[in-house]
Amino acid sequence: MISPEALLVAVRAVHYGAAIVLFGEIVFAGFVAVEGRRADERSLAGEAATAIHRRRSPVIATAWAATMVSGALWLVLAAVGMSGRPFAEAVTPSTLANVLAATVFGQAWSLRAVLALALLGLWLGWLEGSERPGSAWLLAALVAGALLASLAWAGHANAEIGVEGWIHHACDAAHLLAAGAWLGGLAPLAAVLGRLGGGPASHEARRCARIAARFGNLAAGCVGVLVATGIVNAYFLLPTPLSLVDTAYGKLLLAKILLFAAMLAIAAVNRMRLTPALGAARDDPGLAGSAARRLRRNVWIEQALGFAVILIVAALGITPPPMPMSM
């Protein structure tokens, strides 16, 4: 039988992953996979458009549903844990209302529920079937970003107060947004590259090379944010460097760092070797298809490592950080 702790880790991982997918898919479709310099000329193009349109609605709908279901389960598990009562006694309207009204977690949960419903309204009202990115996509990205960033108020930063609390929460929020833009954009990038596997026309190879290059630039910026905010978060949560190897929290964090380093190495190969190779082979369909397949394979490896990182992050959230040593 699954333990309550393992169930909570699984629910948190699904919720984090779904929120990341929502944000990353919207950012990619609305701002990365676009062609045209002027705002009124921007549109998804050619085979890239086909790849994105076919998967966009099902993926976003599934991610939205997973966010809602996992969020509800998370609230129930939080009520059980905070009340200290058996499941049947803890899951009552009064207990759930107390969690929502009297805790930072509950208030952040309520905000996420409102944001998720607002995102659904945006999608159904404006974005479903839309082929021309515009202000509605920007608004959707802001709402999805706020939904993801609000998870900073469901972690260890809640233990901080005053200015340090705001700094820690802000760093966590920036960390989440950078992770979302990077990890959430990998699957749609793989879908775009998959359209080149059978030997595309040269103009399609050029478009996909430009999309891959734009995503590489975005990912590079995200890496910088992740490193900077990760250092700040480590300052708050690790009393000494030895905490990385002699505490449960530190060992999980070390595993996350190692996975991140592996992702960074793969991303560097993609950016410096495979993306330029795709651009250089654009006039040879065979070479372009080969370059796209190699790049797509690496993107899926990045994605798999990213999912492992999300699982570790979910476990970190319920693992007490090491306490500072008293003098």
Describe the structure.
There is one protein chain. With 327 residues, the protein is mostly helical. Helices cover 78% and strands 0% of the residues. The protein has helices spanning 4-32, 46-83, 87-90, 93-102, 104-127, 135-149, 162-183, 186-194, 202-237, 243-246, 248-280, 285-316. The protein starts with a helix and ends in an 11-residue tail after the last helix. 42% of the residues are buried.
Key descriptive features of the protein:
single chain; 327 residues; mainly alpha; globular
Write the layout of secondary structure elements.
Elements: H1 4-32, H2 46-83, H3 87-90, H4 93-102, H5 104-127, H6 135-149, H7 162-183, H8 186-194, H9 202-237, H10 243-246, H11 248-280, H12 285-316
Helix pairs in contact: 1-2, 1-6, 1-7, 1-8, 1-12, 2-4, 2-5, 2-8, 4-5, 5-6, 7-9, 8-12, 9-11, 11-12
Strand content: under 5%
Helix content: over 70%
- The number of helical elements comes to 12
Distance between the termini: 43 Å
Query: How many E-type strands?
Result: 0
Summarize the helix and strand pattern as letters: HHHHHHHHHHHH
Class per helix and strand makeup = mainly alpha
Mean pLDDT across the residues is 85
Show unreliable segments: 37-45
The profile of the biggest β sheet is:
none
Tell me the Rg in angstroms: 21 Å
